[in-house]
Model the fold of this input.
Amino acid sequence: MRLLYLHYGPQSGVTSAVARILATKGLELTLANPTEGFLWKLREGSRLPNPRPAALRAFAEAVRRHRGAWKAYWVHTPWAFDHLSSVAAEAVRRARPDAVLQAGVLFGPGLPSERPYHLYVDHTRAIAERYVPLPGLAPPLPPDPGWRAREEAVYRGARSIFSMSAFAARSLAMDYGVDPARVFVVGAGPVVAPVSPPPMRDPDRDPAILFVGRSFASKGGPDLLEAFQLVRRACPRAALWIVSQDTPARLPTGAIFHGTLGPGALASLYARAAVFALPTLREAFGLAFLEAMASGLPVVGTSIEAIPEIVADGETGILVPPRDPPALAEACTALLRDPARARRMGEAGRARVAERFGWERVAERMLAVLDPRAASGEEASVAPAG
Done:
């Protein structure tokens, strides 16, 4: 089967993970990124706005619609959608695949599409429009009938939709009227592989809380800094390790900023920390939770969006309300003070990831729909959402 995978960049490692595992299943895979070169040009290591007319048109529309938040929503305008869709359609014509797998709905594969297509989504615009405005975060996407009409047309034209979560699957049905029989919850997997063999004894782990989030503010980093100061009163030896592309303005005593790390260095921190904490305020799915759980870490997260599907509250971790530093501090402190409980939760998390998640399972669940002849074994059975 010849499959064209339309994507929009690395997606925190999702693109390479999906491509790698599908290629191992015998598919003849071609990749294309319609957004490549659209937003930015690389020049001597710098990222500069792309001066091409198409990109400038999208920039002007984003500024008009979103003002100071234009950068976050440059591709979230009807004009950008139409332009990127034309690029995607050309990629389909060149590749002439048997089918198309598209990541997300920042564009369409050409409407009507020349080939049957399937979608792999983690979110919808309707979810983003319902976000509550929060200080320090980009404002929620405003309602845009033009964009929503285009998005809905892509959903309705898809032969099937693979969703990372039941949360996103429900939005497809409720917000866009997609038939649940065409939506399949396939999950996701950890991008950073755990250290092998994993640490099995409490002394192998430092009394450290690990935070991993590219966007420090939207992942709840400021709340964790506030909570950590409360943790240090109860656990003076506690440390906070921050992995993020955003540098916090001020670090409390005991906090260390690591910047961004490669997979090996990050896996080492997962193996050494005692607790993983990500009090995120907006979360399309939550791959970092899977990585932490696969590494045997108990996790502390917020009870929003798809996170309760990943973290079994009280079993593999503790879920707290968003924007609640005292509750966050209490959860982290409880796990630092009770290593035996933390170890039990970590082992339960490792087992949960092994049983329910992983890219091998994602591929098998997709193949059961894309090409049932190529799927094999028990995992080839996948039920529609709803």
Residues 377-383 have pLDDT under 50 and may be disordered. Residues 78-95 form the longest helix (18 residues).
